[in-house]
Amino acid sequence: MRVGVIQTAAGTQVQEVVGDAVRKISSERCDLWVLPELFHTSLEFTSRERLIESCEEIPGGPVTQELINVASKSGTFIIAGIAEKDEEVLYNSAVLVGPTGVLAKYRKLHLFYREKAWFTPGNLPLPVVDIGLARIGMMICFDHFFPETARTLAFRGADVIAHPAGLFVADVGQRTMQVRARENGVYAITPTRVGREHAEGGSYRHFVGCSQIVSPTGAVIFKASAEREEVGFAEIDPALARDKSIGLTDENHEASIDRFRDRQTLFYEADPL
Q: Going residue by residue through the chain (273 aa), what tens digit of pLDDT does each one get?
């Protein structure tokens, strides 16, 4: 299975960034593409009115429809971050589309910092979708900070976790996702953006790039640069994500450690809150 990640540039106009993504998807054969968080718009909003202008309904919105169109023509699957409007409620969402249309939608559960002023936390279950070649789970950016998110997707059978992001704090998110991939035995795909956008008070927010694809062992099998737009690819084997052993065997050559079976749930504390 061939997967692709698209690293975009901050501050690009909607028509330009969407058109560029469509061209890249159309020009390369790939089974699954993953684009960044809110890929078609800014991550810095100065008013609710400005944010609403960027939001759309799913599946009827123009960006979602553009992705469905290119997925149908290319015979591929695409995951992208979308600013979603559902009546008067705004969500930081991700959509999975394929040749037949929208297959799943996810709304970011863990909002970061000033996102809480603009978006409502997600109200949908963490999705895992079987696209035939693999079972795909979705989470968004700051969800990486909460290990329960990736673990839940893994428990629900995800072979691949698609993680649209807009990372701007060193490479913390990238390193965290290496851990999430290894501890759950899944592939993790994290696209983000590069460059800078105007932030509050006349300052700028710098995005760190370094979009990546990580194997179930936690090894980085593709890493983009920290300076430029980029497209990256990797050949992955979803069967490797279904073996939850960590490679050690006993005297009978059987797996001696299993990520899920060996959990000692009797001693795990309940949520104190």
A: 999 999 999 977 888 999 999 999 999 999 999 999 999 998 888 788 889 999 999 999 999 999 999 999 999 999 999 999 999 999 999 999 999 999 999 999 999 988 999 999 999 999 999 999 999 999 999 999 999 999 999 999 999 999 999 998 778 999 999 999 999 999 999 999 999 987 666 678 899 999 999 999 999 999 999 999 999 999 999 999 999 988 766 666 566 789 999 999 999 988 777
Q: What's the fold here for domain 2-244?
A: Nitrilase/N-carbamoyl-D-aminoacid amidohydrolase (3.60.110)
- List the catalytic residues: 37, 108, 141
This prediction's pTM? 0.95
Please, where are the H alpha helices in the chain?
14-27, 48-54, 62-74, 115-118, 147-155, 172-184
> Where do the structural domains in the chain lie, given as residue ranges?
2-244
For Cα atoms 194, 195, 201, give the angle at the middle one, nearest 5 degrees.
130
